[in-house]
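Annotators were shown the component list below and the corresponding predicted structure, then asked to write short factual statements about the assembly.
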Amino acid sequence: QVRLVQSGAEVKKPGASVKVSCKASGYTFISHYMHWVRQAPGQGLEWMGVINPSGDWTNYAQKFQGRVTLTRDTSTSTDYMELSSLRSEDTAVYYCARDNSDSRSAWWFDPWGQGTLVTVSS
Amino acid sequence: SSELTQDPAVSVALGQTVRITCQGDSLRRDYASWYQQKPGQAPVLVFYAENNRPSGIPDRFSGSTSGNTASLTITGAQAEDEADYYCKTRDSSGNHWVFGGGTKLTVL
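Structure shown to annotators:
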């Protein structure tokens, strides 16, 4: 079945960077975009950005421009999200989510990875 | 602030019908998708596009759109439906995606 499996929890110090991976299986990796979404403790879902199937185009939320980098390795069907200059407010669960669309007016995220907790603390 | 507005909390008696709404101008152009999230779990897609429910999602979940408002309706709510529900669509620019603030559903 279609699965997204993310890397394990991370603890980082302020100012450091973190790189989270998302390994896909059960479908043709290069047929779908991939989104990244985060959720701070007790808060809602926040869209961070998206990468295209070939990995040569990305689009980031304004809030994360300059700090987030999405990449992918098509040889291993793995996506990566790197967030730099970490601060305490970046403590959150980070999710990858596969894009699906009808190419007209509907886009949906399915499935989602299990999430990766990133804790930023000195 | 979110471009999609949801009521923070809604409650429903067991077996009754509840509607969760999501307002935003982008919904006049694009359909919403809806996600259920239970504590400690990843979100799960429960409804999308004009009238689509993923396999495995009970048929008591349905969706609709009217003007700038999308709705997720649960007909005959069950205890296991207690969760947070989020709507999502593209933002006003059409280049980014945005989630509603989420609705916490309590089944009484």
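Statements collected:
1. Chain B has a mean pLDDT of 95.
2. Chain B touches chain A through 27 residues (CB under 8 Å).
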